[in-house]
Structures are given as structure tokens and as C-alpha cells.
Amino acid sequence: TLEITDLESSLATLRLAAPLPVINSADAVTNPLDLVRSLLAGILSQLVESSPEAAYRSVQLPNSIYDGDLDIVLPKLRPGCKAGELAIDLARQFPIDHPLFPLPFLEGVHWRVLLRVNTLARLLFPFILERGNTYGTDKKVGSKDPSSPKGARKKLIVEFSSPNITNEFHGKHLRSTIIGAFLSRFYESRGWDVTRLNYLGDWGKNIALLKVGWERFADEVVFQARPIEHLLEVYDQINNLFQPEVAASRQARDEAARNGQDEGQAQTEIENQGIYAQRNTAFKKLEEGDEEAIAFWKQVRDVNIENYKDFYSQLGIEFDEYTGESQVKTETMNEVEALLKEKKICEESSGAWVIHMQNHGLKAGTAVIRGRDGATTYLLRDLAAMIERSKKYNFNKMIIVAANDHNSLHFTHLHHILIAMGMKDLAEKIQHLKFNETSSMAETLGTGFKPQAILSHVEQAMSAGLEADAAKTAMFGNLSKSADRLSVASLLVHELSTRTTSAHSFDLSAMTSFKHGTGPDLQYWYAKLCTILKTRNGDVQLSDEDYDFLGEDDSAANLLRLLAQYPEVTRATYNSTSPQPDDIVKYLAGVTEQLADCLSDDEDEVDDGVKGETEAKAEQKTFGAGHLTLFEATRIVLENGLKLLGITPYVAD
Ligand code: ARG
């Protein structure tokens, strides 16, 4: 591992102040901008006679590289000052000919710093190249579990995907799958010990309804041939018959409410007959452990898990545990229920057990623990599941990635009920990471498909996308093989670049295009860099001319300045209360945009039809060792970023 002493010796050779001022919030070993900020704070603290720590806090990162690399907020540096006067005063004493910091320039209250590219390159190249695949990660953070005597890493549970086995794999499950997998990798890159859970919707009245349908409509032969589709068909058939009964029960409830009668009673009368009654009996059998019912349920669960696993593996995703509503222990649920009754948190209402949420920190709402027919509910199972998980994993934090649909209210209830039960600690460790519930995936793909069909649609669109952009496609060689490999990248980037608050567009042609910032485009620039880098001879010692040449090329300089920000970007994402993967995607898209700018002279030749080998030769002439090192550093940043998104960067073979 790299230490602060390694840094200081390399700083000394660059005639930069060593030792570095000690600043607690700075992490100079992993973040080059922290290093540079610390150096600047060292200078500023002497000029204004403050502590380096205070000076450090006045130095911020501007919103864009067009506002410089660092931003000294003058009123923060000396509270109550007149910015203009302070700037003049500071300018008089600022070191002349500093190798890294030219004289900053004033803009409002900001004293802006544009780093000397020449020195920045000397600092940054070894910084990135030595760190390689750890550049932009920070494993120290997770290692600080204050409650662990042995200094174990912090434990995170990510619960994601969690489809319902009687039902289709929806757009919301796809989003949860991809966001959850990202968060898992991301926290691992910050040193956390991560466990991935899939909490299947594999218990409850829906399974019972499927069982009722199975008895009427099942066809063993069809089931053997295509189990998943057949189960969906059977479920649809029985559900169509069932829906009128659901409507009738609701109507009876509303009518009773209007007439001031018992609503539960009115519903029970309807639900004691027809498919309702059959379903409730079937569920009762399941909850009582009836052998035949359990065998049916197990078969359904097993074929589904096998099928999900196949799909997840195509996306490069693996779970540590397939748990689910069915796996919650009856004892735990009984314990939860007993506690709720003992503490008078829940009460009986028309034969059901409910919690009036206005007594527990919410304005209104009723949460049901046990139904009128005595069946457990989603909520009771979840309460028990949370307690079991906390015992089993003793986690520091749990993130549940689920849509902002019925689950939102559900998790709000869950949070407040845990607190009422005296488990505030546990309640506060659980975070519901929600995303917009609207998805247009079903509109695009239709219904009744296995999740694998999502990928085959993307792959088809990818073939078209490749055909539409001949210039970029040439980079990948074999077309059908590329369509296969690029489709996963296009899906992942599309899902991760949609902000969690935005609706899910599932736009096949957009995600598979080579427009700026798509998966295929990020892949394209990565592959292009690799082609160019074939001419690079390892880590050669760069000459002064190499650095000068680089410093004179504005687009190369801007690219370099962007690369310095990568650890800053990942850290900001980590520090946010709700990490947004699209911040990472946007950053990577910005890097490729700057890279394109840097290579644009050569792009003209490509557009004229000079491709492949000739292109490589042209670049060999154009780029000196300085540029090639810059491209290698860019390649490392792109690779690290893509891997964080779950993409294994690929180069045509
Ligand atoms: N199966 C649920 C759904 O599809 C999501 C599960 C969310 N997680 C939980 N612990 N309740 O809506």
C-alpha cells in the first residue's frame, strides 16, 4: 500500500513543500486533489496566520473545470474580510514561480487557482499509474467499525431485485437489480463487507391463488417444456377469474362504510365463498405446513430461482443468499406479534390485528399484522425478517432497493413500528433506497416473458445500433459477438444513468446507440484507447519536452484535470445520503467527451474512411510519450469506472 512518505519523497523531487501539513479531513494518499489542497492550505495558512485545517476548509472544488481547479473562498479564509482587499494583500505575499500554483485570479469572492499542468502531470501520472485499479477507491473507510474490537470491516446488507415468483419480472425489479448490484460493488470499493440478499416474494396469498389455478389449468407437459411461462399463464388465468370477486369485496366494504356497518364483516361474507375461499384455504394449508401444498410451493420456487440465476449471471450478478418471505420463521413472527400485543401497539379490529399509525409518529394510516382469516401479512413477515437478519448478520447498515410504490408506505410503517417496539437502533440502520415507480418496460416488451427476454431485446436493438454507426462499429470487429457483449453494457449504463427520481424510460434505441454517454459509447472510447496504447512502451521516463508538449495542448490539459477529480467524484457519491450512480456515469461521459476532443484531429481521418491499421499508424506519429501516458491514465480511470458500473471493458480480439 502507498503511504504518505512515498508521496512526500515524490513531492520533494518536484520542489513541492514536504512534509505535508497534517489535515484530518484530507486524504492525500487516495485523492490527488486533497493532496493539492493540503499543499495550498500550507501556503495560505502562513499568509493569513491561521491553522492549516482552517485554510483547507476555505479551498473548494469549483463546479466545472472551466472555473479553474480549486476555489479559495476568501470570506471563509478570513471571516469578515473584503474579498478584493484580501486578494491584493495575499497576492503580494504569494510565492513567486511556485511549481504548482501560479498566482490565483479574483472572481467575486473567489480566488481561483488554475494548476500548472506541467507539474500536475508529474504529480498525477505516477499517482494514477501506481494505484491502477485502486485509483478512485478508498478501502480504509469501511475498515473503521467503531463497535468492533478486532477492527473488522463494516458490514452492509444490500437487499435488491426481490421479484415475486407468481408474477412477471417487472421494470421495477430490473431497476432494483441493477442499482442494487451497483451499490454492492460501490460499498465494496469503499472497504465494506457486503452481503447481497434477494428477498423473493415467494409466500402469501398469491402463491395460494396460483395453487388454486394449478389445480384447474395445469398441463404437466407444457410445464416440463417451459415451466416459467406456463406458471405465468396459469396465474393469469386464475387471476382473471378472481378479479371480479376482489371488486365485489371492495364494493361490499364501501357500502358497509356508507351505511355505518362493519366493513370487515361485509367483506368476510363475500370472501367466504368462491375463489376467495379456495385461496384462503390453500394459504392456510401452506402456513400449516401441509405436505402437498409445500411440495407445490417448493417446486415453483426452485424453478424460478434457477431461472433468475441464469438471468442474473448474464448480467454478471450473483447473490449470497436467496431468502424470501417464505423463509421467515414462524417463531420469530409469533415473537413479534406477542411483543406488539404486550406493548399494546397493535389491537384487534373486525378479527384482524392492526396498528393505528397515528399513535406511532405518523399522521394516519392502518398497518395490518394479521388478516381477518388469521393469515400472516407482508408487514409481519418483514418485521420478523429484519430482526432475523440483524441477528444473523449483525450489520452496520442495510439498504433495501425497492420502488417508490406500495413499498414506500410499507417501509415507513416498518420504521415506526420497529421504534415503537423499542428497536430504534435497528430501525435507523435500515435505509429504503427508492426509485421512481413508473416504468415503461412493459410497454416496450409486452407481458408474459422470462427476464432473459429483456436481454435478447436489447441484443437485437444493439445489432441495429451497430449497423447504424459504421465508423464506431469498426472498432469492435466481429459484429454479432460485439452485439452480445455490448448489450449488457448498454442496459447497465442506461439503468444507472437514469436518476432514481426519474421515470424509467427503457428506450431500447437510445440505450444501444453510440450517443455520448451510452454504454456502447463508453466501450467504444475504451477500445479506442487500447488501440492507441498498443504503441506505448511501458512506463518510460518522460522528458521535460514531453511534459512541456502536454502542457501546451489545452484539450490534453483539460483531460488531465478531469482525471484528477475521479476520487473526488466517487467520494462525493459515497458521502451522499442516497448515492446516485448517474453521477459516476456523467463523470465518465465527461471524460470521454474530453478524450474525443483530444483525439479530434485524428477523428477527421477516420471519418474520411482511413480505419484500422492505418489509423493506428497515424496516431503513432501524432502522440508523444506524454500523451500516451495521459491516455494510459485515462484508460485506467475508464476501466475503474466501468467496473464500478458492473461492466468488464472489452477490446475486440
Ligand atoms: N417483492 C417486493 C415487490 O416486488 C419487493 C420486496 C422489498 N423488500 C422487502 N423487504 N419488503 O414489490
Automatic annotation (TrEMBL):
Q: Which GO terms describe its biological process?
A: arginyl-tRNA aminoacylation; mitochondrial translation
The record's listing under Pfam families reads:
DALR_1, tRNA-synt_1d
UniProt lineage: Eukaryota, Fungi, Dikarya, Ascomycota, Pezizomycotina
**Bias category Basic and acidic residues: which stretches?**
251-261
State the source organism's domain of life: Eukaryota
The text of the family note is: Belongs to the class-I aminoacyl-tRNA synthetase family.
EC class of this enzyme? Answer: ligase
Substrates-to-products reaction catalysed: tRNA(Arg) + L-arginine + ATP = L-arginyl-tRNA(Arg) + AMP + diphosphate
| EC number from the UniProt entry | 6.1.1.19
Query: Which Gene3D superfamilies does the entry mention?
Result: Arginyl tRNA synthetase N-terminal domain (3.30.1360.70), HUPs (3.40.50.620), Isoleucyl-tRNA Synthetase, Domain 1 (1.10.730.10)
Entry's Gene Ontology molecular function annotations: arginine-tRNA ligase activity; ATP binding
Does rRNA-binding count among this protein's keywords? no
Q: What are the alphabetically sorted keywords of the record?
A: Aminoacyl-tRNA synthetase, ATP-binding, Ligase, Nucleotide-binding, Protein biosynthesis
Q: Where is this region: Disordered?
A: 249-271
**What name is this protein filed under?**
arginine--tRNA ligase
User: Known SMART domains for this protein?
Assistant: DALR_1
**Can you list the GO cellular component terms from the UniProt entry?**
mitochondrion
Domain (DALR anticodon binding): give its ranges. Answer: 522-651
The organism is: Paraphaeosphaeria sporulosa
The Polar residues compositionally biased stretches are 262-271
